[in-house]
Design brief:
The chain has 314 residues and is an alpha/beta fold. Helix content is 42%, strand content 14%. The protein is globular and about 60 Å long.
């Protein structure tokens, strides 16, 4: 399969990292290596790039793409939730910066065999780590009614969850649902007729919700970001690109909590809880793609970038 990936908010993200030539930087979602290539171009032979991805195909591609750069490079086939263990295994005590580009890469969406897209026919899979046990097929065909409804509502913010799940269960009682377009068509038909042909595909939220469940994305995000901040040197920065409101809310609230961690009652004259700020937010509001980027890459339209900087310990 030909690898194709368009990096989202490339320059905004790397500019926000404030890269030092001899620093240690982590790309927690290496993907096609777009962000990492720009980081590597700013590093000298003493600098290091650590690329993490649970998709071996992406990892292999990025290795070749980053070969020409003179900096040190470490590639790890793992999930960023294991960041703490990964850095310990590499004997890295502190890092100068880290980025997370969350969601699905273009090449994963375009590869119909991965089952992420509601526009292309393929097996119901959606696993970012192809060695993982749980797949979209399992979620769609074996989860109970209440479980499926909760997933669509909580992870997809789908207001028609009940109608969609009823349609899924009616169909799977006849025969298992095995293909992406089969599921997309079921969702479309379950939608009220007047809402089926709007600009955004009716199956968009359902596919998002199932993907999040299959890959446990929201469950691992806060823990991984907290570990990342703990490993940052003072002045080190973390940048996170999200693609939907649930992820962005987690990032926003975590940065706020780490900037203002005090839990003392508002009427206390001074803080007695002892919780000290860990970061300052560089972006008070998220950065969004430019109109030109959205025009050239429609998949970037929902992206938001938030950046925070580790502060000196007092």
């Amino acid at each position: 399969m030909k690898f194709s990936h368009t990096t989202v908010m490339l320059y905004e993200t790397i500019e926000g990292l404030n890269v030092k030539p001899d620093g240690i930087y982590v790309d927690g979602t290496l993907g096609g290596g777009g962000h990492s290539a720009l980081i590597c171009s700013k590093l000298d032979q003493n600098g290091m790039l650590i690329g993490i991805d649970q998709d071996q195909f992406a990892l292999n591609y990025a290795k070749k793409r980053l070969e020409p750069f003179k900096c040190q490079k470490k590639f790890v086939n793992n999930n960023f939730v294991n960041l703490k263990t990964i850095l310990q295994d590499l004997n890295v005590a502190k890092i100068d910066g880290i980025i997370f580009d969350l969601g699905v890469s273009s090449f994963q969406l375009d590869d119909e065999t991965r089952g992420f897209s509601y526009h292309h026919d393929g097996p119901l899979d959606m696993r970012m780590d192809k060695q993982a046990e749980l797949s979209a097929y399992d979620v769609v065909n074996y989860y109970a009614f209440k479980e499926l409804v909760a997933i669509l509502r909580n992870y997809g913010e789908e207001k028609h969850a009940n109608r969609i799940v009823k349609a899924i269960i009616q169909q799977r009682d006849i025969a298992p649902i095995t293909r992406t377009l089969e599921l997309a068509d079921l969702v479309k038909k379950a939608y009220p007729p007047k809402e089926r042909y709007k600009q955004k595909h009716p199956a968009r939220k359902t596919f998002q919700a199932i993907r999040l469940e299959v890959n446990h994305e929201l469950n691992i995000l806060k823990a991984a970001l907290s570990d990342a901040i703990a490993f940052l040197k003072p002045g080190g920065r973390i940048g996170v690109i999200t693609f939907h409101s649930l992820e962005d809310r987690i990032v926003k609230h975590l940065f706020q909590e780490q900037e203002n961690p005090c839990i003392c009652p508002p009427d206390f004259p001074k803080c007695v809880c002892g919780r000290l700020p860990q970061v300052k937010r560089i972006t008070r509001k998220p950065i969004s793609p430019s109109d030109l980027e959205i025009e050239n890459n429609r998949r970037s339209r929902s992206a938001k970038l938030r950046i925070a900087e580790k502060i000196e310990e007092k």
